């Protein structure tokens, strides 16, 4: 009887301690259906590290998705020589990215990488020459090394993955091939 009671008291104290610890340490994560996009760099050659940097940039800039290495192959990244960098999106968050070594000697490799991954995340090209945009690609010239999506671009991706904008989701989730971004055809001003 006595032993049993002490046992309960100890158990209750332990539970309190755990609960307190939980409040202190574990920041309760919001219940979300964030998509994990596993990217595979086994064929990315010298661009594997840059792929990791690009993943961090997108993870920091967006919500509702997480690019993660070594967990699968939603996104395969390839190093190629010649023919131009491009992206093939099979569905939102899934596809293949090809980085052309020759173009990466002219343009910022990190900007190319984040741009091409941007296509996989649902963004179209926007060749307006604006270096503050990521999806302006090569239209911003070789001197533009900005690897960061604008707030507008990042928010659009977050919204696509939140699935809260049906029209954009439909637009962004379809299969598509994105070529000729480096250099890009200059947009007509007007
Ligand atoms: Zn592009």
UniProtKB/TrEMBL annotation:
<keyword id="KW-0732">Signal</keyword>
<keyword id="KW-0482">Metalloprotease</keyword>
<dbReference type="InterPro" id="IPR000013">
    <property type="entry name" value="Peptidase_M7"/>
</dbReference>
<comment type="similarity">
    <text>Belongs to the peptidase M7 family.</text>
</comment>
<dbReference type="GO" id="GO:0004222">
    <property type="term" value="F:metalloendopeptidase activity"/>
</dbReference>
<dbReference type="GO" id="GO:0008270">
    <property type="term" value="F:zinc ion binding"/>
</dbReference>
<feature type="signal peptide">
    <location>
        <begin position="1"/>
        <end position="33"/>
    </location>
</feature>
<keyword id="KW-0378">Hydrolase</keyword>
<keyword id="KW-0645">Protease</keyword>
<dbReference type="InterPro" id="IPR024079">
    <property type="entry name" value="MetalloPept_cat_dom_sf"/>
</dbReference>
<dbReference type="GO" id="GO:0005576">
    <property type="term" value="C:extracellular region"/>
</dbReference>
<dbReference type="GO" id="GO:0006508">
    <property type="term" value="P:proteolysis"/>
</dbReference>
<keyword id="KW-0479">Metal-binding</keyword>
<protein>
    <recommendedName>
        <fullName>Extracellular small neutral protease</fullName>
        <ecNumber>3.4.24.77</ecNumber>
    </recommendedName>
</protein>
<dbReference type="Pfam" id="PF02031">
    <property type="entry name" value="Peptidase_M7"/>
</dbReference>
